[in-house]
């Protein structure tokens, strides 16, 4: 029965590979822009920029080398070159598609996303043509584009635009672009976003309970079917079928028949266990998947890795303070690769990707995620524990603690290379990891300065929005927008507040310049949630991208572990990276398949601890809590007002609404797929455990 649905959705899913778009302020090197401490000498950009004085000087040299005699044209091309310093330069140069030597020049049709005061800059592309077409330019960046280059042209000849393009239309076909689909274009000055459309937060989050089990991690089946893998902290993974919204069904999962059982290898305790699972983007072809867990080297011989407390980071394991009676680095963080083998009953570990000994018993993150745009494996690692990061590991670029780690698991080097490079397992280093530019960094590091990243996600519609919640110490829980080489401040800062460690046990003496730090985009004070003597601990969620609750679409959802509060983060203007978090009410649908318990004394559903969020192939959002699995459903089921809900054609208040949304969009194509489905079913059944 599941087979037909599975095949049709498999096809549908292949249509979902949208070209990634991005827009929050980001530089062409994928880094976050920074505040210019002194105004740039050459380029007329100030405030938050992508150029330091060295980059500014290079642009000045490039400008002089063009030797443009016409003053009008020279001034326009100065702006074109200097647009690399714009805080949106990644978007102007479209680094997510084919990178360009010149930014996308706003074309005549463009005005929608630009403020009225910039009306005069409309058709900047046409203006460049009109002003520069007959002007000789040496090493013209426009000519460079013909050579398929992104930097300066190799030849140093003079050329005119008319040498290569017949007309304004030709020229603007090559360089012009509209400000469509959230993308920006260059109109002769700093990018400004349309500030008029301010979305409002949803009036509430309506939940239905579909399972009783307690899980830490959920991963949709990469085949696009209505199924997902769920893992629990003790170390089991199950494959479950998710009921359609409104069907009244619950999660279909055979408790006694896990997909994988690692409970003999996993060390399970308060902050230890199976932390995360991730499926290779090509899982349906290669059967590769990954589990991140903790192990105890005293109990399992294969639990062997280098200790993260070592001489490189001025940490002496023999002097590590005792923590819950454990030996130094007795517990390890492991990422292991498994394969679904058609012939074997259960998956087997085929390769150890990563193993690292932990200094204390807390703060070791553990989530693993494949980047949707780059296919690399991201591994979130906390500061290793001990109050206030006593060894200052998170700021230490020689330590992998307190970091976002980025690994290439598709190119495994030889054992000799792994030893030579000093890697922590079987992976290679992506060539654009930031250590190439920052030689102080360990090559695995993508971002630093985190305390205990507890649940990160990529926006499924904008892959550059990589959000991580980072658990705070005494005052503040934060959400960070992770960028390459970004330093998120811990332990010099806890959220926006300077932090003074209670103890310093050693480590490297690292000074932190606050101007190089990236502060949270959202967060909350402990005093906002612990009014009843409880604690606070953030659990990061997802950008809501399902059509099920149209009023929640585009909000970034996150919660406090203690389930006293859930927030929706709204970005205004859209694509600005400027977020405002609003606490939203939540309740349980009266017709929930499994009735929700209610917290005695108030009307909140008794969720227990909110461990994680999950997202399925329909982009529906789930809460994984100590009391069960909850799905975000249509707001009307909880009597939350949402005018958009009934106006949305493909959300029908009948059983199977979520799948009817697919067929109404892509319906006719399904028929031919059904015809060959039985053959595919035979082939693919090897992977259907
Ligand atoms: C930045 O430059 C603009 C003009 O280009 C100017 O109006 C503004 O005051 C400058 N801002 C700062 C902070 O220098
Ligand atoms: C720049 O142009 C001027 C004339 O406009 C010419 O005299 C000079 O030689 C040129 N410089 C180079 C490096 O070609
Ligand atoms: C900004 O966006 C709104 C809504 O999309 C649109 O109606 C308005 O015309 C835009 N404003 C400008 C100045 O382009
Ligand atoms: C450029 O040259 C063309 C052809 O000689 C001429 O028609 C046009 O007016 C010139 N444009 C400018 C801006 O000088
Ligand atoms: C200059 O242009 C000519 C003709 O297009 C070409 O043959 C020559 O190689 C170019 N010079 C350089 C240095 O690229
Ligand atoms: C830019 O405008 C010209 C007409 O002025 C048009 O021919 C061209 O297709 C447009 N280019 C883009 C990328 O929109
Ligand atoms: C979940 O637990 C409730 C209460 O114990 C029970 O009535 C229900 O049958 C369970 N549902 C499932 C799907 O396990
Ligand atoms: C995934 O599969 C596609 C198509 O089979 C292939 O082109 C691609 O190289 C594969 N990618 C990886 C990372 O294995
Ligand atoms: C950068 O400038 C913005 C706006 O002036 C300010 O809000 C922010 O705190 C500054 N960041 C740093 C790291 O100084
Ligand atoms: C946190 O508390 C501080 C001071 O008590 C206050 O200034 C700040 O606005 C609060 N921040 C949030 C996000 O509530
Ligand atoms: C950020 O969002 C807030 C709240 O919506 C808004 O008032 C403010 O103007 C925005 N800031 C910027 C720089 O757009
Ligand atoms: C939407 O439709 C449902 C079912 O027909 C109804 O219960 C609900 O009140 C409607 N919601 C709104 C906002 O009109």
Associated small molecules: 2-acetamido-2-deoxy-beta-D-glucopyranose
Strand order within the widest sheet?
31-7-34-33-32
Shape: globular
Fill in the CATH topology of the largest domain.
Neuraminidase
CATH superfamily (homologous) name of the largest domain: TolB, C-terminal domain
Distance linking N and C termini: 15 Å
Mean pLDDT: 85
Number of H- or I-type helical stretches? 15
Set down the secondary structure blueprint.
Elements lengths: L1 H13 L19 E2 L12 E2 L3 H14 L4 H12 L6 H4 L12 E2 L17 H9 L4 E2 L2 H6 L11 E2 L1 H4 L3 H8 E2 L27 E7 L5 E4 L6 E5 L4 E6 L18 E2 L12 E6 L3 H4 L1 E9 L9 E2 L23 E9 L8 E10 L10 E3 L6 E5 L21 E5 L7 H7 L23 E4 L4 E7 L2 E9 L5 E6 L11 E2 L2 E2 L23 E4 H4 L8 E6 L12 E5 L5 E6 L7 E6 L1 E3 L21 E6 L5 E5 L2 E6 L9 H5 L9 H10 L2 H7 L1 H8 L5
The chain binds 2-acetamido-2-deoxy-beta-D-glucopyranose (12 copies).
Task: Please describe what this structure looks like.
Residues 1-23 form the signal peptide. GO terms for molecular function: oxidoreductase activity. It is a lipid-anchor. This protein has 689 residues and is of the alpha+beta class. The chain folds into three domains: 2-177, no CATH class; 205-646, Neuraminidase, CATH 2.120.10.30; 658-688. 17% of the residues lie in helices and 24% in strands. The strands form ten sheets. The protein has a five-stranded mixed sheet with strand order 31-7-34-33-32, with no helix packed on it. A five-stranded mixed sheet has the order 12-13-15-16-14. A hairpin with a 6-residue loop joins strand 8 and strand 9 (227-231). Helix 1 packs across helix 14 and helix 2 packs antiparallel against helix 3 (71-82). It starts with a helix and ends in a 5-residue tail after the last helix. The chain binds 2-acetamido-2-deoxy-beta-D-glucopyranose (12 copies). One 2-acetamido-2-deoxy-beta-D-glucopyranose (NAG) is lined by residues 44, 46-47.
